[in-house]
Amino acid sequence: MPSPTTDTPRGAIVPIGGAEAKTGTRDVLRRVLALAGGPDARIVVIPTASELPDTGDRYATLFKDLGAAEVRVLEIAERAHARVPGAVDAVERSTGIFMTGGNQLRLSTILGGTELARAIRRRNASGAVVAGTSAGAAVIPEHMIASGSTGPTPTTESVTLAPGMGLTNRLIIDQHFRQRDRLGRLLTAVSFNPFATGVGIDEDTALVLHPDNVFEVIGSGTVTVVDPSDLIYSSMDSARRGEPVSLIGLSVHVLAAGCTYDTESRMASAPPRVPYLDEDEDPVPDES
Prior knowledge:
four-stranded mixed sheet; 288 residues; 7 helices; 17 strands; Rossmann fold; alpha/beta; disordered N terminus
């Protein structure tokens, strides 16, 4: 496998909000496969976050049904398994790595600091797509939301952060976002250090972070973006334990499929407008 060079663009990073459609058009999983090479894709599935015995096999079947050339499941249930040469070799020759849902702390404590984790970062740096759903999405950035409370209000104890896999330091990612009412904990996570952009990803929704650090939204829901770059006041340092936190100057965007966000300029963009026509509505007659 060639080493990363300055001429080799990084592979896409695709965090998914969980519960992605597994029947019908399967748009999110289909996009992951396309980014990994379509019919030439070699996918490695890592079900470490899940304790269900069939999780890896279910995703292997899905990717095979979508047309992947090769799918391999790596059953990494303890840290010793992450040092097995065969597992590292499988990642090194892959074009796509997919981490399933479950418990992100299980994923980070088993993979963190291992040769397998380093291989995943190397392959992403040299062009392979890395995708993760639910817990597999949360672990992608440098700072991972490990746990937290539900509700819309940020408080001093709304969230616990832990080290993630470090594939990007530009984002803090939360998942099942609207479905589990997680705005408060994302706001709290961003307030701890207003450097990274917070992104809350709905179910059956994903963002595709391209090598130019612009991401696009795909899927049936939305991505909520919390931009702290213009934050002018935070009471996080003085609020008492469990108290609500004041945050002044945040920007919040709600982005549906087709919208983009530049993580460097912090600019959100909408796709071109498409005229709406109701299925039961007759087209406007041409009077020219």
